[in-house]
Specification:
4 copies of one chain form a homotetramer.
Chain A: H1 12-29, H2 36-43, H3 47-53, H4 57-68, H5 81-97, H6 99-114, H7 116-142, H8 152-169, H9 176-189
Chain D binds a DNA duplex (31 and 31 nucleotides) through helix 2 and helix 3.
DNA sequence: CGCTAAACGAGACGGTACGTCGTGTCTTCTG
DNA sequence: CAGAAGACACGACGTACCGTCTCGTTTAGCG
């Protein structure tokens, strides 16, 4: 019937070494300048081993991106949307101020632009991040801190848009002040109604 | 003194041939696969002539894109911030929905990430776009449609952040609805004060 | 221990293809005009393969010369120095009248002048040729057809000097007459003594 | 009369600067490595000025060679062929032992091989040198120091053959001993007749 | 335990494109 | 209007990687 297997098994250590080296290399030189030759040497692996398991540079990068894009931001729960958001953005922005992190994110974005194959895992990563923020907003909506019919996806994109825009261009910082203003803006943009001045 | 110049001048025809060929080639094979060798041959130009005037593939591409990317958005002036913004974003978003345009912008961004050397003209381009929007917002501030001390740069980044975030990822459209919501969000985020109810 | 070798071994066929192509190319276009690019293409080999094994154009040419410069002239043995020499020179000169041969020799000489790196194998080749003639002369000396203390190296240089001088300049032919005269001149220059006839 | 001439006259100094630089450059780097670009820069001259007056690198080299190759050997006149020749060869060989001289001669030869265009002035130079020696031999023939019908051209080639052969290869010196042996060899090879004892 | 077979590090292979340099031609400006 | 400066189209230079192909070695299951 089916021959189960013969010969040496795949060396998992080699696989990990390649992925780790890929992440480091991507951060270092970007998607352009990313070389299988260099990757293999950095990983201490033969070129053929790379080609045996990944069909292309894009595939390695894609897997590297997918593997690394796991880190999550803890969702705060202070009971009020404004403070929840402010805290969430502060944590997020502080992470993004780390040059290594922003560098990695930028190069992941560039890779995603250059090659659609790498885009898929990257987009999934982004979708996960959006989902985090959305659940925060949903909590606010459930507490009626938002007008009915508020477009949560829009607000999410607004928030991550600021993060990425400043992160990619670097013309202005992602500091605590920006986090506070962003939280306030989201709250203002989703405020329930202009009529009844709030009390509570 | 100043030596005015000696020797043959730059051949403008060659420059144009290169830029034209670059645009065609970019559309044909994309940023990857874009070869200086092929570019020179297509343009009927020596490779050296390309390298003489552009430091890198990215630089040629940047200029090619920049040459074509002259489209300016007319600043509407309806007398009210909300409608001005809505109109501005609608026009902007509609342009960005063109696959060719968004593709060029994405590749400009990727090139800017991969190669900081090319980033300068791109950042200037972005700064110009921000300045357009900012002048619109300033008009609103002058009309006291905004709270004192509103951070116009923050609002600008918020707006372009949404544009770029959706443009780069493509997970949701930049349609008229988004434009309207964005205008409303900016207005809400900069509203003069919750205390004094409006009196139209 | 000793690492025996790792990785694929050198492809001997490629080496031979390069050398063969080098010989042909050298004959065709000379040392100038000899292009590594063309050599690689003619040999059906990657340029890198050439550069991997030879440090320079000169080195390839040197090896090509060394490989090809094996053809030996049979040493005649008629029992008398004069006829031995005459026969040897006739054979040698006739070979040298072939335009292809003389062309190759000239270009070898030029290469040896231009680039000392190529000189070594060429000089060895020349030394081999001198050794052939010298053994002929030694036989004559052993038969006491020469004066004691005759400088065989000088005679050898005299003979090959004529060959090369005419070969390089081409102002006069290397024909049978020249061969005969050369043989006679060597015999005269090495004659044992003015034994019987002359006095003084 | 004469047209007063308009505009700048041809700069003879530029021509000389080129030739001088060519000689120096040729000695320095040989025919290979000889660059018009470098020549123009060394001469402090525009490339076009070189091309205006010489059709090719070979032509410049040819003229440089022709200009410099003027040095003549004084013809000795001792009354006897053997001593005349010995003196002539000693003088000639001593000049040729100068590394600068031999280097220049070798590169001239190489240039002549590589590029037939440069060969003409070089061959003329060689012909002049042969003519010198031939006139010496003719004097000996006139004095009946030679057999009737001796091939003077052959003897000339024999002599210069030795000079060039040793000069080009450098395996043995062109010293006074060699000069003496060469003179003796020529005398022996042209001796009037073994039978008839001399009767001066 | 010995055999077969696959995976491994290493690295040579035929290629393509790189960015630089020199060619010979052609402006352009200065003296 | 000759001459320097230098841009031009062309093409070879020597290098870096591409993706494929041996090599000899290591490691696993099967008989």
């Amino acid at each position: 019937m089916e021959r189960p297997h013969t010969g040496r098994r795949r060396n998992e250590a080699a696989r990990e070494a390649v992925i780790d080296a890929a992440i480091a290399l991507l951060q270092d030189v970007g998607y352009e300048g990313f070389t299988i030759e260099r990757l293999a040497k950095d990983a201490g692996v033969g070129k053929q081993t790379v080609y045996r398991w990944w069909p292309s540079k894009a595939a390695v990068v894609a897997e590297a991106i997918g593997t690394r894009a796991q880190h999550t931001i803890p969702l705060p729960d202070t009971g009020a949307l404004g403070t929840d958001l402010a805290e969430f953005f502060q944590t997020t922005f502080r992470q993004s101020e780390d040059p290594a992190v922003i560098n990695q994110l930028k190069h992941m974005m560039a890779a995603s632009i250059e090659n659609p194959e790498t885009a898929a895992p990257f987009k999934e990563f982004l979708a996960n991040r959006r989902a985090s923020l959305r659940s925060l907003l949903e909590r606010g909506a459930a507490r009626h801190e938002m007008a009915d019919g508020t477009d949560l996806d829009f607000l999410t994109d607004l928030a991550y848009g600021l993060l990425w825009y400043r992160g990619l261009i670097g013309h202005r910082p992602l500091d605590d002040d920006a986090a506070r203003k962003l939280a306030a803006a989201l709250v203002a943009a989703s405020a329930p109604a202009p009529s009844a001045p709030s009390d509570s």
